[in-house]
Amino acid sequence: AAVAMFTGKADCPYYAKAELLADCLQTNLPSFRVHKITQHPDKWEQWLHDICETNGWEHRESPIIWRELLDRGGKGQLLGGLNDFLEYAQKYYGITSMMLSEEMLDIAEENLQEHLEIAKEDEEIKSLIKPMQIWITSASVPICYHLIPLLANGEVFGMTTEISIHLLDTDQFKEILRSMVMETEDLAFPLVRSIVQHTKIDQAFIDADVIIVLDDVLLNLEVQPLESYIREVSEICQVYAPLIEKNAKSEVKVISSGKTFANLKATMLMTYGPSIRPENIIAVATSWESAAKAMLARKMSINAAGVKDVIVWGNITGSKCIDLSHAKLYGYNSALWGPPNFQRPLLKMIYDSEWIDSEFLSAQSTLSSRVSRCTGMLPAHAVATVLRYWYHGSPSEEIISVGILSEGQFCIPEGIIFSMPVRFQNGNWEVMTELEINETTQKVLGRLSHELVQ
């Protein structure tokens, strides 16, 4: 007895042709048994390499077809690819396939969509069996108190994804952590499998899927110089990074937030944790984005949700630039009206250019002061928003600012964490390098880059 095994890339037209011929043989020949496996195109090469290495085969293309000899303990006998199978079917059964190329492509597209849907269902089932592990450092701070309900309500990770929340802080804050644990349990969120407090650093980040770093230092430059605070942040990250490498999952996502040194914390985690994927460490700039949008909305007498594409460049919790050159207004009450997606360039709608050049620019320092004094709602919402975009994608064509490792985009020096415009898609982010930057902004970016490097 034998089973014919058919495996190929989900979007491969040759696999589509082979599987339909196999279905035909199975329907007409009771003794002909078929088992089909599709692989995601991104995972095909590695899967093919592994199966060939295990069985001692030589095969380089999709599909790969073999016979499993059940009476010999499941030993595999390689048949080959599509052409080999067509010859086999013609020789032994007198059957071949006359499928046209267009039909092959259509079925390949259907196979890919079906594969993605099945993979998504599998991930949802797995997430119910083993919840996502979310770790929050310095968890006694007010931001965390506001963040827990946002993570727990299902909007960030999905309405079918259970989570386990881990609150990490020092022993002196254990009573605060205990109160937060009990209050969260009292709220009985359906998607919160567990919430646990941790005060022993050696237990940190075990199986972590997401790590939210909220550690802050209380800046008082009259008491000690800036270098001392930088050293303090560096020492914290020097402890965290090796533990993340040792205990967290390989694809762990790390978010640096808080009121101070957001860029520096991300930089230090990369420095002391070289095996952590650099693209999986980002710093959150959304609080400053949101505060700027609210200020503009008050000037324009519209809802802040109608202000889009404000860009935050530079050192998020330090020297930065709020760029309005791409900003847009939606739902603005003017002579021209349109559907909900109708937008107008913000700078063309603000006729008081002096307000932009004087009040708005001078208010940026006040804005930073106000954001840094936030009790927790705004930065918590910023973290939750960025995480939701990271897992589910950001709105189409909308600009999101986050601190990422520069690769030289916009002439920013490589190797520094710098806030810049990105979009989130399919669990990843990409820099919106297609945006045009005017000469004035480019000079500002040069100055901000120089300050960060220094």
UniProtKB/TrEMBL annotation:
The Lactate/malate dehydrogenase C-terminal domain, residue ranges: 292-452
GO biological process: malate metabolic process; tricarboxylic acid cycle
Matches recorded under SUPFAM superfamilies: LDH C-terminal domain-like (SSF56327), NAD(P)-binding Rossmann-fold domains (SSF51735)
Keywords linked to the UniProt accession: NAD, Oxidoreductase, Tricarboxylic acid cycle
One function term, GO molecular function aspect: malate dehydrogenase activity
Pfam family, one: Ldh_1_C
InterPro entries: Lactate/malate_DH_C, Lactate_DH/Glyco_Ohase_4_C, Malate_DH_type2, NAD(P)-bd_dom_sf
Similarity comment: family membership: Belongs to the LDH/MDH superfamily. MDH type 2 family.
UniProt cross-references to PANTHER family, sorted A to Z: MALATE DEHYDROGENASE
Protein name: Putative malate dehydrogenase 1B
Gene: Mdh1_0
